[in-house]
Write a structure and sequence with these properties.
Helix content: 25-40%
Number of domains: 2
Strand order of the largest sheet: 5-4-3-2-1-14
CATH superfamily of the largest domain: Carbon-nitrogen hydrolase
CATH class of the largest domain: Alpha Beta
Strand content: 15-25%
Number of strands: 19
Number of helices: 17
CATH architecture of the largest domain: 4-Layer Sandwich
Length: 569
């Protein structure tokens, strides 16, 4: 028996492309063997309220009906692919919806299995839309017994009352193959956790395990692929990350000893409550290795390209400040550019912009080979200040004067965006977003946040890695200078915030939900500093609620999976 695994990438709801893809694979699908496609292959994922919209349902039912006819030509293979199974009430409204695996066998399409575990945490809200399955699925093909799971079903957790893997093992003690159709979002460290769990399942059920995951960037959520096939501890194949992939190989017999060991329950919901901190006192974020930096860079570039392609952009625009955040975003975008794409950087100096900021920004653009434009805000700033005093009878000063500079830059970068049709990339980092160290409708603008899931200390690490791996693209002065917003005379971030190595560790503890102020103080941080940081974090919810999509690369991120009331005690 052979496995044919298809690691695919399609836009959500692009039924024409999905149909054309299947037609293009007709000869492949006619080959004997088990053919695997990802979870919800027929629709894309995550779907959210799309599953309830009439036009979406009608289009989906069309491809589902088409699949019945398409399946008639496949008599020698077993094809497993993810889709939806609708049940309607008397008024034609969806009464319940199943996230299921369809099996094409002997020329017919049948619903084989309904997903049992519906994740309902972080970015997941499947219980809102889907009805869970209750039973295991074992299919027979070429006298071989094949167990089927869908995504979350492979994970054990204190959150889940049922263990579908145990359910599968109890239903059949002599499986020949276990498969998992998945739409598993990416975060750093996830690939190895999946592989570890796959080996646990293979040994626990005494059968090879094949994991088929989708690829794609869906707004801020990334799907990395990373499909694999294991036989006990042996890794038979691993798919590419962030690229479509396909493999055909013979399924070996299980060659190990059945081991029903205790599974690692820190793999799903629990992992959100595990702050990534080292053992120092006070703790710090773990050092980013070169390997981790490279994977982060690959994920961010993929997220930018997916968002741009699906929204129809071929031009990119970054507002350069002379600081490390905008420099890093500019470098990442430049390294991600494909044929037919272009980018531009705009430097917008004000009264408090240092001469070095101009020089380093110009040097950066020369290193990257991209156009460098200059649009000063000094005269606009002075005009607005004068008009403000004339009309309101008081000076524009303090925070109001600082913020108007940022908002002028936001207005100008979007004027340029409208003129050129370029997509604006936001340059705020996770530390700034957490404590509100950004101006609403100013430097918080952008179509997509590139660094919104990286703390400031990680921004420094990634910048140094880019210079190491790509030849000193970012001027050293940008990396070594004290961070500053340059909105008032001699301003530095350290005047308003703790040192980033301390701030970032505090924030990681807070955002994991596991560490409160008492725990953080016990780990070595000063109470006064903690209360200041936590106060800034709480007060900034209104800014985060209006922030642009953030490319998600961590287990716990701001954005789609982070939902906190703005108005609260």
């Amino acid at each position: 028996m052979q496995i044919h695994l298809y690691q695919t990438k399609h836009t959500i709801g692009d039924f024409d492309a999905i149909r054309q893809y299947l037609e293009s694979k007709t000869s492949d699908l006619q080959r004997p063997g088990v053919h695997l496609f990802p979870e919800l292959f027929l629709t894309g994922y995550p779907l959210q309220d799309l599953v309830l919209q009439k036009t979406f349902i009608e289009s989906y039912l069309e491809i589902r009906n088409w699949l019945d006819g398409f399946a008639k030509q496949f008599n020698d293979s077993l094809i497993l692919l993810g889709g939806l199974n609708y049940h309607f009430d008397d008024n034609g409204l969806p009464r319940d919806i199943e996230n299921c695996a369809f099996a094409i066998q002997s020329g017919k399409v049948e619903k084989a299995y309904t997903k049992v575990l519906l994740p309902n945490y972080d970015i997941f809200d499947e219980e809102k839309y889907f009805s869970p399955g209750t039973s295991a699925c074992v299919l027979t093909y070429q006298n071989q017994k094949i167990g089927v799971l869908i995504c979350e079903d492979m994970w054990v957790s204190s959150l889940h009352p049922v263990d579908p893997v145990k359910l599968l093992g109890d239903s059949c003690s002599d499986l020949d193959l276990v498969v998992n159709l998945s739409a598993s979002p990416f975060h750093l460290g996830k690939e190895e956790k999946r592989l570890k769990r796959g080996k646990e399942i293979s040994k626990g059920l005494g059968a090879p395990f094949a994991y088929c995951n989708r690829v794609g960037g869906e707004d801020e959520i990334l799907f990395d692929g990373g499909s694999f096939i294991v036989n006990g501890e042996n890794e038979l194949w691993r798919g590419n990350l962030f690229h479509i992939d396909q493999i055909s190989l013979d399924v070996p017999s299980f060659n190990g000893q059945k081991e029903e060991g205790k599974a690692d329950i820190e793999n799903t919901w629990e992992s959100l409550f595990s702050p990534a901190l080292d053992s120092q006192k006070p703790p710090r974020l773990p050092e980013m290795t070169d390997e981790l930096c490279q994977l982060t860079l690959q994920a961010l570039a993929f997220g930018i390209q997916e968002y741009a392609a699906k929204c129809g952009f071929k031009k990119f625009l970054v507002a350069l400040s002379g600081g490390i955040d905008s420099a890093l975003v500019t470098a990442i975008v430049r390294l991600s550019l494909k044929e037919g794409q272009s980018m531009e950087a705009v430097y917008m100096p004000g009264f408090f912009s240092a001469e070095e900021s101009y020089n380093w920004s110009l040097e950066l653009c020369k290193n990257l080979g991209i156009p460098f434009k200059v649009q000063p805000i000094k005269f606009l700033h002075r005009t607005i200040s004068n008009d403000f005093k004339q009309n309101f009878g008081e000076e524009l000063q303090g925070l109001s004067d600082e913020n108007i500079q940022s908002r002028l830059r936001g207005a100008l970068i979007y004027a340029r965006s409208n003129q050129t049709g370029a997509m604006v990339l936001n340059t705020s980092n996770k530390s700034e977003i957490a404590v509100g160290y950004s101006t609403q409708y100013g430097d918080s603008v952008g179509a997509l946040s590139v660094l919104g899931d990286l703390y400031k200390s990680e921004v420094f690490a990634l910048s140094k890695y880019i210079n190491k791996a790509h030849g000193n693209l970012i001027p050293d002065g940008i990396i070594t200078r004290p961070p500053s917003a340059e909105l008032r005379e001699n301003q530095e971030d350290s005047q308003s915030l703790p040192a980033y190595e301390r701030l970032d560790a505090m924030l990681e503890g807070i955002l994991s939900y596991r560490m409160g102020l008492k725990e953080l103080q016990g780990s070595g941080f000063q109470r006064e500093e903690l209360e200041k940081v936590y106060g800034l974090y709480k007060k900034s919810e209104y800014k985060r609620s209006q922030f642009c999509p953030i490319i998600k690369v961590k287990a716990k991120s701001f954005g789609f999976g982070y939902r906190i009331p703005i108005c609260k005690k």
